[in-house]
Amino acid sequence: MGNHGILTVAESVDVTFDNMYYLERAAMIQVLACSTQQKLKILDDNVVELTHAQMHKELPAYAKNHLDSVIRRLMSSCKDFL
Predict the structure, then answer these.
(1) Which position among 39, 40, 65, 76 has the lowest Cβ density within 10 Å, counted as fewest Cβ atoms?
(2) What would the pLDDT profile of 7-45 be if each residue is shown by its tens digit?
(3) 12 secondary structure, DSSP code
């Protein structure tokens, strides 16, 4: 892939979009947090596991709704989107 960036793969386009969206957001927040040059707190493993379980419990349905909402916003702001 050379300089084409990252590749995201999942069982559906909806879940793939959702995974990429949250990966990008997490990276952005990590860069912002590191830019403070303060000691960062590491989350407790139990918190991480609970958050993961909660987010992935309804992932396919949530991911579809998330992508649909982004498409609706794009269609309303960019009339020639589709």
Answers:
(1) 39
(2) 889 999 999 999 999 999 999 999 999 999 999 999 999
(3) S
Which residue, among 76, 22, 74, has the nearest Cα to 51 in the 3D structure?
22
Distance CA 69, CA 20 (A): 16
Residue 2: pLDDT over 80: no
Taking alpha carbons only, the member of 9, 12, 8, 3 closest to residue 27 is: 8
